[in-house]
Design brief:
Elements: E1 2-4, E2 7-9, E3 16-19, E4 27-30, E5 35-38, E6 46-49, E7 56-58, E8 61-63, E9 70-72, E10 79-81, H1 93-106, H2 115-144, E11 149-152, E12 155-158
Antiparallel strand pairs: 1-2, 3-4, 5-6, 7-8, 9-10, 11-12
Helix pairs in contact: 1-2
Length: 162
Amino acid sequence: MYRFGRSCYRACPRGTIADESDPKDKKCLNCESGCVTCSKQDQSKCLKCETNPLLFLHNEKCVAQCPPKWRPALFENECVEETEVPVIYFPLMIMTLLMAIIAYAGQYSSKLLDQRNHRKLISFYALTGVIDVLAMYFQVFCTIFQDREIWHVGIPLIALSG
């Protein structure tokens, strides 16, 4: 049992951390305000912040708003440094280009593919291209609206209006 305030608990309540340095006197220590979990060695160092109200982890502290030059992370409630130029990856681009080369070469070589397989390859190539374009638009959309993120139950939603 852990002692916290005037009560005893089987496990430490939310916003506290177990102190088992004395096996005869197990107790719960308060984390900083807004912290869900904190460091055992230093309770002022937050590891995870509250989600209701939403707080963001920045330099081991929970803050209501990320400081200038920082923005909320897309899928976590923490602040990440803004970059001058957003990095956008196109994971299917190499596969799309490879499929295009194979499809292009296949139409001139009857030895590589028969007509039926060539159509399947062209369809696959078109599908990967569509997926890549959709992924690109999603990433560009998220980059454009990165400063207008609103959050609900820890899942980011992009606001379409200011």
